[in-house]
Amino acid sequence: MLPALFGDSPCFMMSLYSYITTTTPESDRFLRFSILAVFVLLTNYLSVIIEPINYFGYTITCAICVHIQIAGILYGIYLVKEPKSNESFSQLNDSAADTLLTNLDDLPIKENVTNVKLSLKPPRRNVLKEFFDPSLLLEFIKLPFKKRGNNGSLIFLLLILCYYLTVGTIYIESKYYYDHSHNTYRMKKLVTSIIGACLCGVIFSKMWKFSDSMIGIWIAVFTAVSRGMFVIADTKTTSKEFYTAQVLDLFSILRIIPIKCIASSISEGDGKLFSFFGILEPIVVFIYPRIFVPVLSVVIDSFENLMLLFIELFYVPTMLILFACYFLIRHRSANLA
Fold first, then answer.
1. Considering the entire predicted model, what is its pTM?
2. Residue of 169, 196, 155, 202 lying closest to 329 (CA atoms)
3. At residue 320, what are phi and psi to the nearest 5 degrees?
4. How far apart are CA 337 and CA 334, in angstroms?
5. 175 CB-near residues (< 8 Å, 6+ apart)
6. Is domain 8-80+151-330 given the CATH code 1.20.120 in the classification?
7. Mind telling me which residue stretches traverse the membrane in this protein (predicted)?
């Protein structure tokens, strides 16, 4: 209960994405996000494979986790540097101040001037008032509808819908469907996911300079086709279909990264962006089970993999949204050029 009150893992991931966005140029963000996704995947797999509770027991495992978390907090406080402010903006202010002082030096000096003591005492901050400030909530609600030029508002609304559909399918696959990555093929799934992250991050994004929307289209297409292959594999007795499906599913860990990269490029400098995406994820828990559970209760006894076909209905609009974003961003780039 206590970690949930302070945001838990969604808040932590939100802060990581925000920090990377602030400290990384737009051309390198997809690569950095891909590296982060690989480390998150490795952490999840290691926790499943090692199973420390079975080896050390509950008490020792909790003690190890506490020490790791304390080390992480100390690392964040003392070693992670705060993002630097824009140097060009500070230089502009310095030059303006120099000009102002030069002009003031040319003015005539008045003799009878009373000395006035200026109070430079900073205003006292009220932490509770800032924490529960309702105006911040109002600004957060207005974020999706904020006016952005060159189709920026339309693109941002489409990305919110795409993010919601993508996160929803990820949640359903992990909670209500037997996760095929945790069977005898899970190590192969881990290897193919790392290969897919390297292909997208290093080759497609960094070397070939593919746009984020184009990479998102490729990821959505491969993921949708892989789900169909898993349905076919369920009717076969050999493992060849499972291997083929997992090869096609090599980009699945990167499904939400193109959406966040596009959104960060449109809302450059807006610190509330990843907070908004972070709050969307818990909302999925309340809405998607009410859609999928009735379907799952009907098909679970007859054909379990029919759930994947139902999930395909959410991948189709995701691909269409990414196609629309691709053309809108091209039009936006042409207008800004």
1. 0.79
2. 155
3. -65, -40
4. 5
5. 289
6. no
7. 30-50, 56-80, 152-170, 190-208, 215-233, 275-300, 306-329
Task: Return the SS3 of 25.
Answer: coil
Q: What is the dihedral of CA 141, 145, 147, 151, to 10 degrees?
A: 140
Amino acid at 93: N
Residue 56, Cα to own-chain centre: how many angstroms? 34
Q: How far apart are the C-alpha atoms of 279 and 11, rounded to whole Å?
A: 9
Amino acid (one-letter) located at 307: M
Residue-level length of the chain: 337
| Cβ-contact 159, 325 below 8 angstroms | yes
Question: Helices 257-266 and 306-336, interaxial angle, to 10°?
Answer: 30
pLDDT, one tens digit per residue, over 33-67 is 999 999 988 887 777 666 766 777 888 888 888 89
**Other CB atoms within 10 A of residue 166 CB:** 24
- Over the stretch 185-211, which tens digit does the pLDDT of each residue have? 667 778 888 899 999 999 999 999 999
- Give me the phi and psi of 166, to 5 degrees please: -70, -45
CB 174 within 8 A of CB 252: no
Side chain identity, residue 175: K
Q: Which residues contact 159 (CB under 8 A, 6 or more apart)?
A: 259, 262, 263, 266, 321, 325
Specify the residue for token string 């209500």.
Answer: 176
